[in-house]
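Workshop exercise sheet. Pairs work together: one partner reads the sequence aloud, the other fills in the structure field after running the prediction. Swap roles for the next sheet.
Pair: D.N. / O.F.
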Amino acid sequence: MKLTLSWLKSHIETAADLDTIIRSLTMLGLEVDAVIDRSKHLAPFRVAYVVSAEPHPNADKLRVCVVDTGAERVQVVCGAPNARAGMKGVFAPMGSTIPRNGMVLKPSTIRGVASQGMLCSGYEMALSDDHDGIIELPADAPVGEPFAKVLGLDDPLLDVKITANRADCLGVRGIARDLAAAGLGRLKPLATEKIPGLFPSPIGIAIADLKACPLFVGRYIRGVKNGPSPRWLQDRLLSIGLRPISALVDITNFATFDLDRPLHVFDAGKLKGGLTLRSAEGGECLLALNGKEYALEPGMTVICDDSGVVSLGGVIGGEPTGCDAATTDVFIEAALFDAVLTAATGRKLNLQSDARYRFERGLDPAFVFDAIEIATRLVLDLCGGEPGEVTFAGAEPTWQRSLSLRPERVASLGGLAVSEAEITRILTTLGCTVEAGDGAFQVAMPSWRGDIEGEADLVEEVLRIHGYDHIPVVPMSLETALPRPALDAGQRRAGLVRRTLAERGLNEAVTFSFMSSALLGAGNQALFGPVKPELLVANPISADLDLMRPNILPNLLSAAKRNADRGYGDVALFELGPQYADETPAGQRDLATGIRVGRFARKQWNDPGRTVDVFDAKADALAALAAAGAPIENLQVTSDPPAWYHPGRGGSIRLGPKAVLAHFGEIHPRFVAALDLRGPAVGFEIYLDAVPFAKSARQRPALKLSSFQPLERDFAFLVDQSVTVEQVLRAARGVDRKLITDVRLFDVYTGAGVPEGKKSLAITVVLQPVEATLTDEQIDGFSKTLVAEVTKRTGAVLRA
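Structure field:
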């Protein structure tokens, strides 16, 4: 919604400056997107007096003018037919930029005559499409004054963001009403006096669909003269980007933006008979005012005369009945159109208009007759003529409603105690009628506030006008009315684990909490343990679902088998759910379990791909544990997985010597063979209920970036075969946790040059200095310390 400061002040008497108005609008919920100074690019242009205008010696259509700019007299060559001595125009000096085309004026010679500037047209100033002559200013325009100031173009333009619920602020008066309620001034009265009709309306109105249009009001005015609108009206429209067309059309556009009341004016001489509002019929078309023809569909609201459709209700008028310079008799229409039907019509036709924008958000149902009177006054003042009697069909819809407001709810909902007297003042200035009752106000809503529907809305209005900035900042007490979180910590953790595994390329599966007891002994080997009688189901839903699952892995592997039988041999699945150790509640544990079968990635022409291995399962398990909040830096990996994993190709992840958080590894080959799975299978099991919750909310540490270059150092150690890689890595990390940012293994070697019973582990250590670049002496000292620490904790020897 765009408006100028002077336009706003035509509705409100205020002494507030622009900054105060902008701040108040924003606090009222009417955010000011931009304030545009239209005079900024017009600053160089001045009012000038044409002292003389002589014919050009070398061109018949040019004149050599002497122009008084107020500071000096300059010679200008001008080709405008209206350039003459004694007139006042707009002068562009050397170095100024023409707004229309961006041309920078330079001294020039035109047909042998020097020209030191330019007299500008409205087209060149980007103010209109008139380029037939230069701008003629009033005779009393002071010479040398800024052109923008003389024409009122120094009036700031405000671009206000209107939320969808505040349809009443799609007119300048609605915005002024809010400012007046906030105490910035007094809202000026609106002249809505009835103008008596001098003759009965020769055009009748009928409504065939009262749902689409409950009220249609019109007035016939004869003997009008439709010429250009006055300067003040053109300036208002130009300021918001609308092109003035004619007085009659400009009046309707002005009412739309000034009062949030779309109107339409028919050329009465082009109408055939009376007007009927109905739904469109199949095959009907309308040539609209925008020059486009639209094929109408049944259900669209149209206005018709005896010849057919002449207007699309609430959206756009028809070109055949539009007003032009020859119009002498008009019929003004003001109506209420259904918001939903209007929006649907506009969407189907892909037709947006200022009228549709307002009708689909809801208009003041009590302002229709007043709008006709205001429009009549404007037509009579600007175009003359004689008014007929107001005619209408339908009735004003019932909009009256009253809401109850308990004063204490302002404090309980909004956090600010407002006195009853202030509540009454605010609601009254907003147009409400307030009556005190037994412990509550009865508030009658104004017709233009259809968005206020309950007590909470009234509380918002009171706080909005009183000022959100008055709400005190107070600490949150333990006793709070805020609802508890919908998810507990365990549920949030499960969601994070689920998302992490999905991001790693695993598909979530949901299998039964039952399984076949035969799966536990697949291949005549009780790999998943013996069948516990207490877990057998007395009345299974199926013969192969006779056991409460003591492990989720068999179910996922069975799902992989079903996929393989259908041609999808490479699968990656996970499931979050319970498994059962016995029939007691304590025997139920929540796990995150996953498997990968076959290839990790498909073969490509430049990559043969690879099959899944134990390290894929380990990476999945560690990623899920990290998402669950486990302290990854303190975890230990041991090589003692359960029996259903391949011996030597699996492990357990522990927090301390006893707390087992997860198992991972390659699934035992006997079970893979029993299910006839093609390719290796790996899996992991994470005991979510074993992962401890943080004692306090963990916060991500602040990001600290160093301006110094990191450096890497490689070390190769000879260790016993019994020493694990994790032991070496942990020993290296512990040397200096502030300086070391990463330690990783990049080589494991046994063979020539390595004694029997030993292995070579090569690691990379990344150092990130923070305070200063490390010197050679510091690096050598660090290397000696690291070698000594790894040797002490693992018995390693630095390999030569």
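Discussion prompt: Residues 776-794 form the longest helix (19 residues). What would you look at next?
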